[in-house]
Amino acid sequence: MDKSKRLFLKSKRSFRRRLSPIQSGNRINYRNMSLISRFISEQGKILSRRVNRLTLKQQRLITIAIKQARILSLLPFLNNEKQFEKSELVARTTGLRIRKK
Q: Which residues touch 47 (CB under 8 Å, ≥6 apart)?
């Protein structure tokens, strides 16, 4: 076979379909916190569809459920634990610097 024709041949690798992280028995609902918390980052952001490996319909339902849970204060809007610790440390160190002068 000629080299130019070999370039356009498709590879014969097998394609393994990834399983969805949501099983058929799981209902996407704002009260199902164990399911919803898997799709939120450490900072409290909703993860993208590519990261979640969800279908478009599932991603929409997850997004709506997360927003409903936030409004009903089941989930925080922001996860500021790390930011709070950093600002507290900065305030302490700047206070020490001022005292030395």
A: 39, 40, 41
